[in-house]
Description:
The protein is of the alpha/beta class. Helix content is 33%, strand content 21%.
Amino acid sequence: MRDALMNALKTVNDPELHRDLVSLGMIERAEMDGGLAHVKVNLTTPACPLKGKIESDVRAAVLAVPGVQDVRVTFGATVRAAAQPALPGVKHVVLVGSGKGGVGKSSVAVNLAASLARDGARVGLLDADVYGPSVAHMMGQPAARITANEDRKMLPLEAHGVKFLSMANLSPAGQALVWRGPMLHSAIQQFIKDAAWGELDYLIVDLPPGTGDVQLSLTQTVQVTGAVIVTTPQDVALIDAARAVDMFRKASVPVLGVVENMSYFVAPDTGHTYDIFGRGGSRKLGSEYPLLGEIPLDVEVRQDADQGAPAVLAHPDSAAAQALAGVARTLAGQISVRTLHSTLAELPDQLTVV
């Protein structure tokens, strides 16, 4: 009977990877108990954006097997590392950048990390905005101090299920850092290689705005899975976002997609939508860079950040939080697709991705 179930499951494709679940090695269990079929699918990310479709497709395929009266579908998840993992124990490093300040890049980075962790991924968050670190405050730990283990490696702090490091937790509050390039490079090296990150599925890196030393140091220090560009819709922001895209292109870092922040505003009293900054402008960056999502302008996102609670956790039912969660899941899907393609490129004769 297991063979019949597996043959049925060979007809079910992963909607993003466009290959069947069996050849992808995603079927962990397929067995019968009387007339009840038990199927466990091991997803490529716990933040799978199309989990519901996979479940319905599996149910339909298995119910067509003679003798099956009902189907119970359960899920696990194993994030697969690229052919060349980013760091020991870290499967993917994702840079979150912008061409200019003031577009909500850090808010997006914090909420992406919190959303992925809530969905069950092991997530780290590095605040690489050395001159203007804000992650510690947004994570509710502005006064915490970073310590070291017996191997003299920095121990990341943890909040909301996310491990994080920020210069704000190393330097006195309000103190300006007046550093030149070599000192920045040294600091980034320590944050990446001299920290006990442990086992992570995703390390989200909040970059400083622009195209400067920190960006170059990171791309030269670690194998980066890809970058996310955060922008607002107006032309002034898009001009700078295009520069950020060009920088990553020159550094051979794939752009995983664009997040259009402050895309529109919904008046709470009337429900009317206002395109304050001209919604949809991020599409001008080009069709080759997928739009991961449009985040509405929402006062709760700012309030939650000030209070140290990511909006996806503090107000998960709000339009902004749902949009941010959608971006996180779409991003996870993009990473899964790229990982499969890179693995197949390394192993052209292998039929099953393990």
